[in-house]
């Protein structure tokens, strides 16, 4: 179960023993996730905040792989000392329990206010985070960085072969179309259409087969974290390594995309390299700025989001669903509380639906910032 930590009533320092840049990066990522997931009006979203319709990669499509990359880095910092001094059996048990809690939270969120096990969506963001955490945690304990790099290569090449060369049973030749690719067929076979993404019903953007390359994103985080933990490297060398490796991954991903397009829903191999490379360079820049140069001005909003990232993602989703289910009667008829708040507080005060929608999303981010700030000041960190 999630654990509530309240060590004292004094504010947390901005110089924790943890990696400050990682908290900032995690905070930036989950803040963007809250913004993308909570527009004022789903019909009027600014293009950078909207996912690519199928092939392609927008700013919104960077958020989830960034989070999985961060999961990999976090594993290194959480377990590096323990794996050298403690038996691995209990550590693997802790990893499995945390993964189970994450999966359970995802299932609870899917069932919230619509308790129907026959149609509950089984895949999802938290389910994928749980799987990546479980597999990458075990890999970090049981394999070397070199073995992890080889496994990453095997996963990306093997997944490419599966998507583009293996015929789809009952459909025909291998293809990359939403409902007829190999991953969509596997989801329908093992999970059934009733348990997939309600918008599509025939495929799921967090499906089973695409979870394999998602583990690859986590492995890229493992490799980055292990470089940052090396005591034999100077800080400048660590930053240079991350920039060079990240830049190389971006270039390789773009080259690969000429025959296997960037695609978040399929989590294509080119997408893994492209997004993981950008994440590595972003972390390198923040590491140099926050941990090497000691820069602190203006980072606290991201830190307070970063230390309670899963909490805000989980609760913001529940509250959004609750507002959507809360009926409100107006002179124009029956609507829901979320729509009523948007129509009342934003639409009249902004020139155009896109600005009003953006303002609604930003308001959600700021409201949660206030909540998380109070939690941070009271040293309340909910650990999953």
TrEMBL record:
Domain Heparan-alpha-glucosaminide N-acetyltransferase catalytic: 18-157
Keywords: Membrane, Transmembrane, Transmembrane helix
InterPro entries: HGSNAT_cat (IPR012429)
Sequence intervals crossing the membrane: 62-79, 99-115, 121-141, 148-166, 207-225, 237-259, 271-290, 302-320, 354-376
Top-level taxon of origin: Bacteria
Record's keyword annotation contains Transmembrane: yes
Protein name as catalogued: Heparan-alpha-glucosaminide N-acetyltransferase domain-containing protein
Annotated source species: Hymenobacter lucidus
């Amino acid at each position: 179960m999630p654990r509530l930590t309240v060590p004292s009533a004094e504010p947390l320092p901005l110089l924790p023993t943890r990696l400050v840049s990682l908290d900032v990066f995690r905070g930036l990522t989950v803040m963007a996730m809250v913004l993308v997931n909570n527009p004022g009006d789903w019909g009027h979203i600014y293009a950078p905040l909207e996912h690519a319709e199928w092939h392609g990669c927008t700013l919104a499509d960077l958020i989830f792989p960034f989070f999985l990359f961060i999961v990999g880095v976090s594993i290194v910092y959480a377990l590096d000392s323990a794996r050298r001094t403690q038996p691995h059996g209990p550590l693997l048990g802790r990893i499995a329990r945390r993964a189970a809690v994450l999966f359970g939270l995802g299932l609870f969120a899917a069932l919230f206010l619509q308790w129907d096990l026959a149609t509950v969506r089984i895949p999802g963001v938290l389910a994928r985070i749980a799987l990546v955490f479980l597999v990458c945690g075990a890999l970090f304990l049981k394999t070397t960085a070199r073995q992890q790099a080889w496994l990453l290569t095997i996963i990306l090449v093997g997944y490419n072969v599966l998507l583009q060369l293996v015929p789809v049973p009952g459909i025909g030749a291998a293809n990359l179309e939403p409902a007829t690719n190999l991953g969509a067929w596997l989801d329908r076979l093992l999970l059934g259409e009733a348990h997939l993404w309600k918008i599509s019903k025939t495929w799921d953007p967090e499906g089973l087969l695409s979870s394999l390359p998602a583990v690859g994103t986590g492995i890229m985080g493992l490799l980055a974290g292990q470089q940052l933990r090396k005591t034999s490297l100077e800080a400048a060398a660590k930053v240079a390594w991350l920039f060079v490796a990240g830049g190389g991954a971006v270039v390789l991903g773009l080259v690969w995309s000429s025959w296997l397009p960037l695609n978040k829903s399929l989590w294509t191999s080119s997408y893994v390299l492209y997004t993981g490379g950008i994440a590595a360079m972003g972390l390198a820049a923040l590491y140099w700025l926050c941990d090497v140069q000691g820069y602190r001005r203006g980072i606290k909003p991201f830190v307070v989001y970063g230390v309670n990232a899963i909490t805000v993602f989980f609760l913001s989703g529940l509250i959004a669903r609750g507002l959507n289910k809360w009926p409100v009667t107006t002179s124009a008829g029956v609507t829901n509380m979320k729509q009523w708040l948007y129509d009342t507080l934003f639409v009249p005060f902004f020139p155009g639906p896109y600005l009003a929608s953006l303002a609604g999303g930003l308001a959600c981010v700021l409201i949660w910032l206030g909540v998380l700030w109070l939690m941070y000041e009271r040293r309340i960190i909910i650990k999953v």
